[in-house]
Amino acid sequence: MSSRVVALVDMDCFYVQVEERLNPEYKGKPAAVVQYNTWKGGGIIAVNYEARDRGVTRFMRGDEAKEKCPEIHLISVKEVRGKADLTKYRDAGQEVLDVMCKFCKCIQRASVDEAYLDLTDEVNKRLAEEKNPGDILTSISLPNTFVVGYAEDGNNDEDKRSKGTAEWLKTLWDPDADSQSTRLVIGAAIVEEMRAAIYEETTFRCSAGISGNKVLSKLACGLHKPNRQTILPHSSVPELFSRLPVRKVRSLGGKLGASLVEELGCKVMADLANFSESELHQRFEEKTGSYLYNLARGIEDDPVVPRLVAKSVGCCKNFSGRSALCTKADVAFWLKELASEVGERLEKDMAE
Ligand code: TTP
User: Does the C-beta of 46 come closer than 6 Å to ligand 1?
Assistant: First the structure.
């Protein structure tokens, strides 16, 4: 079992929240952000939860969203130099990171609105400060936390949440209870404080998952969105994996996951646990086989690598159909535009 405490924090419907802060009249009403709104009302890239409740999804065009939900606000991404300008969303993501940095030293930015945090040191520090570590379970309150195994996935009913979480906390009083769970409680308390500070300082809401590794925290984070956090204790992994489709796991969305489903017949993660390590070594190379064997048991050791700026900076624009570039001059023009944007963003990253 991991001795680490890892959290994944993911902003809720992030681009819409950024727009709602700029235009408070959208708050509490269905809204979505669309890109390139020339064809069928534009492609939706973010949908708030009010619009999701009315059946709008990210895979619709703006026109279809309007049909589903006529009162929806469709907000277009600003264009600069003829392409989407995402600066305000990136800057907002940076504001959130600045708050996170007050709570944790080891943060890995994973995308514009998502970051992994290794809270092990912070948890150890709080444990060391406690004169009687047993008191932690009585002094800590987790008013916003669900626990896998003590809540129904996707159900954010407050009464059920508080009963389930209290029931789990009670099990930790048992002298045989694993100490890792107590560490997850402390990690969750830090994340509760951090999410409250993010809201206080930026007005943005987010969700989080807390567990012993990145894969489990990512899974947990999605179970009670929006504006909630979820602990995944190691003991609840078998129950979660008994219903979790293989392709939902972070590293199994691509070819590797497809071969597990198609060749090994694994529908859910628990099916993968039926294969021995040597069987997996035979089917995959040794490193991948062992990785899968451990993953099926909720074990993964990918470290949180401290990194606050994006690993790479890219910039692209599609020229499909009638907008295809036909002359060398057009290609040269757009190459220069895209290169300038990359240059500006690199300079900005360097300054930060
Ligand atoms: P996500 O975190 O995937 O989604 P989200 O924050 O909108 O909603 P959720 O509450 O379900 O996490 O994406 C973060 C932002 O990235 C999103 O607000 C808009 C942008 N984005 C795109 O520009 N293109 C895409 O295809 C996706 C998925 C997201």
Answer: yes
